[in-house]
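Need residues for this backbone.
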């Protein structure tokens, strides 16, 4: 039996890697993947807590988070493709110039 702390430490490492990916990456695709990693870390916490407490509330929340992640991936990828077709780059620093 794996202690519950190990799951939480793994989720913390995953969330930290995702946060660092969003903060330090200079590519929109990698930033979207980092957000997905952060959402998966939250899913791991929900499933672990649900299993530890013996109820299904956390696992039901995982379905909502997965739905949110799918919507985020679809809309985010569509935006990245539109930006790339229009400007030829997906560098987020270039998008700051577009503010005016």
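Answer:
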């Amino acid at each position: 039996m794996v202690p519950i702390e190990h799951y939480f430490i793994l989720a913390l490492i995953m969330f930290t890697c995702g946060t660092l990916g969003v903060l330090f990456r200079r590519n929109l695709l990698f930033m979207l993947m980092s957000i997905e990693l952060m959402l998966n870390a939250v899913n791991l916490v929900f499933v672990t807590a649900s299993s530890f407490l013996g109820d299904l509330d956390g696992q039901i929340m995982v379905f909502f988070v997965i739905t949110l992640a799918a919507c985020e991936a679809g809309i985010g990828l569509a935006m990245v493709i539109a930006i790339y077709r229009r400007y030829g780059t997906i560098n987020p620093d270039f998008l700051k110039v577009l503010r005016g």
